[in-house]
Amino acid sequence: MRFLLIALVFNLLGTSLIWGQTHFAFAEPVQPPRKTQLIAHRGMATLAPENSIEAILALADDFIEWAEVDIRLTKDGRHILIHDTTLNRTTDGKGPVVEQTLEMLQSLDAGSWFAGRFAQTRLPSLVEVLQKSKGRINLYLDCKQINPALLVREILDAGMEKQVIVYGSPEMLKVIQTKSMGKIARMTKFRPKTMHFDSFIAAIQPAAVEIDADEVTQPLCHAFHQKGIRVQAKVLGPEWDKPLYWKKMIQCGVDWLQTDDPLGARFTEVRLRIQKFPVGYALHRGAGRHAPENTLAAIQMGVQIGAPFIEVDIRTTEDNRFVLLHDTTINRTTNQKGQIKQMSHDAILKLDAGIRFGKPFAGTKIPTLDEGLKALGKQSSAYLDAKAIHPEALLLAINKHDIWERHVVYQSAAYCRQLKTLDSRIRLLPPLSSRNGLKELVILKPFGVDAKWSILSKELVDACHAEGIRVFSDALGLNETIVEYQKAIQMGVDVIQTDHPLRLLRAMELLDLSTKEPTSQKR
Fold this sequence. Notes:
19 strands, 8-stranded parallel beta barrel, TIM Barrel, 20 helices
């Protein structure tokens, strides 16, 4: 009798409700989880080739929760990650994806189109991406062309059913629902102007819905949340993918933001929760992880996320003009070769300083010092690494842009003494490489010191502060970890210079200032 009653309930409700996905329990690789999470469109696609394993794992390294990736079928019925129907744009091959086997597709160069350093990058199979992502980052699978039964099997075999959501047409999602017995989360587009809310939910039973940014409202988010359904706001495109819409979406209560700018979106989201960060930060060569170093694009990214300091390197051309570049040569960062001091200003400005970083930045120019200082706007301060510029010329630039209260100058103690003699208003930042070296630098009365990371201690920081000297330190390289950042913050360091602003942001999020204890997230 009990079995008959259960069977009757099944028949009355239907399998779509039995396998309904309200309140779907996703895994949370980023711990503790944030209320508003980010879905990066095709991975970190300004840093590495779109849909590549490198672009996906770069997000995990920076504590972004989700990567959106595109899936297509090969000629031999395998799943591969690529957006377009043809190979032409993102590989050295040509023709439709579906006409090539997996082996043929993975023999192509899928990285050189983006930048030379990614030469021989392969198109990844879905199986490979599931394996690499497990425990590290969740995946939004945009199913362009798939085999539903195979997709379900690959996800379940990888043990990734709690780390993926499948996006596609309602018809395709019904097949996924049946094949997976409701174990795999599903999402499709909801259009408030043309779809009936209750009918949509009854038919689809989604774990989440995607809504275009201009149609997201707080009541709509609340209505879906009442049903246990997450809301993803699609904020792609220049009109929507910016702070105004990110804030609006967060205030409406969305769960996920799909964006091409995870750097800007994450800083915007965190600043809505944290009014004052526990440490200042300087972006090394601008946002040099996310844009070509020392370019206006890198500086402007730093300004957008509200960086207190943006570090740039200054060099002098053959005709005594000033440009922003780190190396003595143009070899590493541009499309040409040569010594800066042997090149004219006009010749340097014709170079492409973006193509080696990545195709999205092709045509980016080496900026002049004036252009760089102007790009700082009215909030961020200039961290000027005076690689090769006469003190008098540097002072003229600081005066021209009136950044006396928004600058520091990094150089040797000898260079700093020359600057101080010329103008006492200069804010000096000489290097401090040993604990005993502080006594010699105190005479300069510097604004701060750039203390070597390995000599940092609470005692050293306190000694600097007792002299009215701020402590800057570079967490570059192996020190770019949550634990190391938090140690420095607890010591009282004033400014941390970083190549990984999102990683430092996570450390600031996690730091419990009331207990001063490091958190358990140690990546």
